[in-house]
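re the bet — no i am not wrong, look at it urself. input seq straight from the record:
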Amino acid sequence: AKALTRSGGFRSGLGRYDEAIQHIEEGIRLLRVLDERRELGLALNMLAAVHHMKGDFRTSRVLLEESLEHFRHVHDGWGVAFSLNDLGLVSYLLEENLEAERFCEESRSMFRAIGDRRGTAFADYNLAMIAERRGDFARAKALYEESLSMREFSHDRWGIAASMVQLGAVMQQLGDTAAARDMLVKALGIAWDSSVTPVVLDALVELA
């Protein structure tokens, strides 16, 4: 079962989403028979990620809700926080902003409680996007700064560049054009050195 889900994850990384779904679903079927609740939660989360990448956010949400149930059942705090944060992101993409904020706030509290800086950074980043959408740029700036600080501590190059791009965009909205440009140039340098193509493109768009 684990080999099937890992195989699905590998195919997803290659962009072979339909094959990935077939492999992960077969792994999930076996895990249900074995009643491996934690592994089932992880596999459902992986399947949700594939549907997310395909743009099927509603299917992703259903899968994440079941994943959350399994993690709660086995009292896996990290798994609960992880699923909550992904539910927050999917809810944001579905423009369900209140639900998104609720999920991400709970996720952030749990990640903080277990000392997971990387998870906390993701939750901060998602909460910043929600604040930015509703026009609360001061709160968005503070959250992106916190996300950046956490990512710098864990040496997450992709995360550092992504947080810098969003922080620069918010600085522009707040009228601090010079600081925004400096931040975006730094983001571009980090992303370019790390070969993070989407973040490079985002930085270039913001600089244009």
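see?? The chain has a mean pLDDT of 91. told u. also The CA atoms of residues 57 and 90 lie 6 Å apart. so pay up
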